[in-house]
Amino acid sequence: MTSRPGLKLRLPPRVKVLEAAGAIGGGRVNIIEAGRVYKALVASSGRPLKYRVAVAPEQGYIRVYSDDNGTVHRGYIGYPIISVMMLMGILPRDSEVEKALADVNWYEVNRRLGKYSLVMEEVLGGLPPGVRVRAEMLVNRVMARLRGVKAVYDPALEFQAP
Fold first, then answer.
1. Closest CA to 109 of 47, 29, 37, 154
2. What single DSSP character describes residue 37?
3. The pTM is what?
């Protein structure tokens, strides 16, 4: 499935919430414009990739753009979009969880395990018990909030990276 203009993006796999938190904790989200439309570059954890992200809240829905694979090819709200929405205050955050996930090489773990449920199990299993509970709570809160958000893919928001 390739995203097309006006497509309402699906909910992401739950692990993408943790990946977004890790991107924030690792300092990999660079907001380059914060006005009516937020624009950001989000660096990958394991490869030299930077995703271009734009988020534009509208009345009753949010227009979004990202050139990450989950958004473009799988039709769900990708982790780069989630991370920007967290920084905008649209989605909840937890700085302790962000810090704990800052150094996870998501590319390597995803490549090695090949299944999001296994990735989530391994990453959560590597956290101290208290942080693990906080991470699980964060995932639940973000997913609940995303269920109430109509995120519409809008390639017109695409921009050239500085």
1. 47
2. S
3. 0.96
